[in-house]
Amino acid sequence: MNRKSLIWLLLLCAVCIAPWLISANGYLSRVLTLLLLFAAMAQAWNIVGGLANQISLGHAAFFGLGAYTSTILLIRFGLSPWLGLAAAGVVAGLAGALLSLPTMRLKGHYFALATLAFGEVLRAVGNTWSSLTGGPSGISVPMASSGLAQMQFNSTRPYVYIMLAALLVTTAVYWKISSSRLGYALRAVKANVDSAEVIGIDTARTKMLAATISAGLMGACGVLYAQFNFFFDPESIFSLVGVSVRVALICIIGGIGTISGPIIGACFLLPLEELFNATLSSHGAGISQLAYGLILIAIILIEPRGLQALYARIALRFKS
Amino acid sequence: MAHKESRAIDAARRQALMGLGALGVSSAVPGFAWAQGKTVNVGVILPLSGANAQFGINSRQGIELVADEINAAGGLKGLGGAKINLVIADSTSAPATAATVAQRMIAENDCCAILGAFASALTLAISEVTERRNVPLITMSYSDLLTGRGFKNVFQVTAKGSVIGKAQFTFAADLLGGTAKVNKVAILYEDTAFGTSTATGLRAAAKAANVEIVLDEAYPLGITDVTPLINKLRAAKPQVIFPVSYLNDSLLIVRALRQQKISALIVGGSAGYVIPDFAKALGDYADGVLSICSANYDLDTVATERYRKRFKAFMVHEALEHAVSLDVLAQAINAAKSAKPEDITKMLHSMTFTEGWAKAMTNGIVKFDETGLNTYADPVMVQWQKGELATVWPEKYAKTKFVARQPG
Amino acid sequence: MALLQAIIDGLMLGGVYAVISIGLTLVFGVIGIVNFAQSQFLMVGMYVAYFAWAFLGLDPLLGSLLSFTLVFALGYAVQHSLIRKVLKAPEVAQIFLTVGILIVLENLALVAFGSEFKSVQTPYQNEAVEFFDLLISLPYAIAFGASVLAGLAVWWLLAKTWWGRSVRATAQDPMAARLMGIDPDRIYRLAFGLGVGLTAFGGAIILPYLTVSPSVGEQFGVLMFTVVVLGGLGNVLGAVVGGLAVGVIQSLSGLLLPLQLQNMVLFSVFILTLALRPEGLLRKSS
Prior knowledge:
- The structure holds 3 protein chains of 3 kinds.
- By secondary structure, chain A is mostly helical.
- Chain A has helices at residues 3-21, 27-51, 60-77, 81-103, 108-128, 130-133, 157-178, 181-191, 193-198, 203-229, 234-237, 240-255, 261-280, 287-302, 307-319, and strands spanning 139-140, 231-232.
- Chain A has a domain at 22-238.
- The model of chain A has no long low-confidence stretch (mean pLDDT 88).
- By secondary structure, chain C is mainly α.
- The mean pLDDT of chain C is 88.
């Protein structure tokens, strides 16, 4: 076992123990849960953003689709959230595949625009199709007794482990794709689409597969969020800045296209956001978001490849 | 290569450990001292920013008036004179944020109860949190869903939205001389929980009276240009218009009706149609406008004049209803001789409140049934008369007569 | 009749959408980036006009000139200090820089001005001219008139002046333009300034019939993008045609469908256009 793996193992142990060191229903518990969930979401985004270099600004669409799918199935048919998890993954994955069809040939900015619009479309649908989604007033996960079968708990602790599991799963998927034939194909497409075609890669199928997996994982995360928060509405679940930009930003800050990027990014960004919220929001609405935006701009100007690259640059400068 | 990698991993490790360290820093849970020494914390979550800020501020003022009165008179007698400490937080106008604010408030302050949050959409989101944490939530929001989910910890001092909507229609018909005189009506409503609930009542009442509904449209809450909506209205030619709006939309609608020279009778659905800012913004054009309301200050001027004296404006219904909320909470605490949430909830369900601010609600009584609804709350029809809101219907509550507004 | 009313309203609104969107398409055509923050400059322009009205008593029509000027300067500075730095960077940097600017501008307004909706009172605000059974809303008509004037001014600027020719030259081939003695960086600054300035101007002239708040930009975001995508990114004439089309589409869908679905139709048009004909409906480029 080399040094790298040892460090990650230690980290894993630390996260497993942490919930028992802090209050079960305290705010820190909540932050830890959301940190792990958003790291998982960012890892899902990393599959298209990092491996395929397709900057999606609409991943909230899949997140929200997943959340609504399982919650509606639970309310209407009493379907267990665990099965709802699978259903949400399928629905979101399908949406990802469907979206990749028309956006296949779009480059950079156009692709981002199209995904952004898709997210907005779903937000509008969520707001309008009230009979299905509850409309702008949002939807609530029905109260159930605390337990694993219902995926609902009175204390935050079990949620920490669920989100941790989600992070491990998405990271494993990323790793598997990255080191597989699909990963090879994606990297070829990222480098040069035409060359990739020339060497026999079915770029369309490659992109669609990545999109489907990424979307499906995102949808599953949506279910976990729904079961954790009990309540959500179209504005928050399909949010451009709150979800789409945030998961992309987490990935970028940590290092887009690296397996540890989403985790590092989440560890940096989420506590920072909470810090801003706790200290700045009492001074007025918008200050914490403003700080967030300024950080984003600073990161982009200083080192768009993320913290790992920034550290490497600084280290290099110190050496010479 | 390995060297570079381990450097990067060092960075990662440091980052992660720092992050975890920050998380591990004291997350001291406030001790379960529901009456820490001589104060009792009461949580107040209201929209203090955003489109509904004015309503939030009015509500907060109503609460502050009662809190100060109780503290000045010696505090909560049932707890040996403990003072009420209001913990006030801004819900913003986003339901998801309101829920997070509630989470934070419950986790960090031991509030014996929470009051709020004016807008039904916000209150619904907060109730999901309070119900799961078994903290009583006392509200004046209307949405039928609040009391329709079988929750045990939600208490609503006003009538239900659909009941208010029904009254909005039937009282208007009464004032016009009976439903036979009403031919075509239009229903416009903002699309969140408040508007939707009220519209349900309006719709059912109109259908039951066999009156033709020529327009039945929901509009997005943040609408900024109502011209297309009013265009549709103009084409439909209704006799009476029943809009259910908050403040910005109420102003936009009334102005647009003027611009398009539509002179049908306007019967508002409370909220934006009864707040002082409505009259301030519209001046003479507000005069004569009718609205249904869940309570009105002229039903108990002895109490509500105290508000006017302190805050220099009439006690609009949300201020009044929040004052009632805090007062029944205080009465429950005194009767239970405890500030523990579960004791308060039990008292709120079992007591009949006839003293203090409870007298300012219709019938002078507040009593919550097992769903948390105040069964004695009746809607009243009010009318703007020279900058004041006068209760004009039903007769048993009316303080003055309805004055038909001249067209134009 | 209601149909005709909707079409006329749509055309008048469309004129404004056109002016707002010309800025966006200009920025892409000349500089090559999609400015995700464009609608926030509209919000800034609206606020400038609002305060000009509140403190100086200026009607928003006059205030719109002030909006244009101030936001032009702002855009000039933003291009120089921020955008320029990512022109050669990977696309992800370009996208997220303007997204960051979007977040900063919206929340700066929130912190500075609060979230309440503010509106102006003008004498013509609630007036309408009756024409048989049609009602021509005066604020709509005036905004449309101002848009036409602005559109003509931009056309004249781009087609007839030396500066305009430099801009078009830089858009076509920055290298060649440099060889001709044009400084592309300077052109970029002026173009970005003009682009966001126009959008701000558009925001100011619609202030009489709308209300301003920090989040007003959100309503126009996808709308602007639909316009420029329909007309072809970089195609100024396309923005005009696209604007009018979007105005009419929006107005008709508001009439025929529930109000909340108005924007759904637009989004669908947007995605379909991107999918089927990303270069826009008009073929020629700027």
